[in-house]
Amino acid sequence: MPQAFDTVTEFFEHACRRLAVSMEICEIVRTPDREMRVEVPVRMDNGQLKVFIGYRVQHNGARGPYKGGIRYHQEADVDEVRTLSALMTWKTALVGVPFGGAKGGVQCDPTTMSKTELQRLTRGFTRAISHIIGVNRDIPAPDVGTNAQTMAWMMAAYAEEHGYNPGVVTGKPVELGGSLGREEATGFGVALMVGLASKDLSISLAGSTVAIQGFGNVGSYTAKYLHEHGCHIVGIADVKGGVYNAKGLEIPALLVYALQHSGSVAGFPGGEPLTNDELLALPCDWLIPAALGSVLRADNAAKVHARCVVEAANHPLEPDADLVLAAKGIPVLPDLLVNAGGVTVSYFEWVQNVQRFSWDLERVNNELTNYMQRAYRAVTNRARAERISHREAAYLVAVERVVSAVQLQGLP
Ligand code: NAD
After folding, report:
1. What pLDDT, in 10s, does the model give residues 15-29?
2. Could you identify the atom of ligand 1 that is nearest to the CA of residue 240?
């Protein structure tokens, strides 16, 4: 399998060729501005010392402070973090928020760690990267394996050295300066994208069928909103297993069940068991990967029976899966666009922190809807005008904006 960063770079280079971007600019933008690897020694609850490896990669900061989540996962390595940092550069540009792209990760399995161990790890990691983050430098947020609590610890650890500055992280608890609507923003945006695409693809949203991989922050809120829009969520699978109901799962009951079962849908009594492989092959209108990257490759993409694939996760499709789906006539809504709701409300949170002024939920969701609709139209208009895929169109729009910012600042 090619390194994930190489595949994202291919999308970028393809856009550069179409836009006739100079080799010099292409070279400046292609690779990250800065990559930091840190060791984080943590005293575990049993008294033993364990050394964790963490990364912060800042890909491009031409359009504003670097921005991107922190992932806690046993497979978080520098290639993955680098890939996700590049995706953030394109995502912030596409959705039109004034940030660059970054990502962080710590190689650990948070599901096996106690709350106190996670707090010590987070504080240690924050101290290790604190000189390269900041409200006008680089602003972390939650991602896989991290949440609002993690951000609260990061904010507190940063404050110990640099003083109170809540805008240094987003996705914080509301009590500490987090924004209303941030927790649900990515799922809200995914559901919004499905709603807009349903009109373009002439699929009636109410009554359409949905399969979702992942029931964490993104998957669960996506399921909640699509269920509220009248969709039938027929299958959901997570790392522990899945559940299927041809008539549609009872999502409010499933949300309660998952809360009581360590976040997992496995064993939910309102449906039959389902594997992840089966989920990806379910006949449905919308297949929504909302877990990890590279889950659809050429082999299993051939088995997809959805009418549209909606990339709620980051980089869930390998490029050969793209080709297979295109040959089958299945459109793909790309990650850059689909899951941009999270970073958009992160931007609103940062704005509120900088201005020391809070917005109500209605304002957050109205602004989010405006930003996401604009980005959707930019992508679909470009795709239509140039007869290219939505992914190619998303990269064209994003790369154009970043390249323009780099050019305007002048070359050395
Ligand atoms: P999360 O940690 O809250 O949830 C991850 C989900 O994926 C869980 O349900 C987990 O069981 C499932 N999962 C993990 N490994 C799996 C496997 N091997 N097979 C099947 N399921 C598996 O993470 P999240 O915040 O919901 O993020 C999900 C995806 O969305 C990631 O790709 C992330 O980068 C992307 N994303 C998240 C946000 C956000 O605001 N949280 C924003 C943009 C993109």
Report:
1. 999 999 999 999 999
2. 11
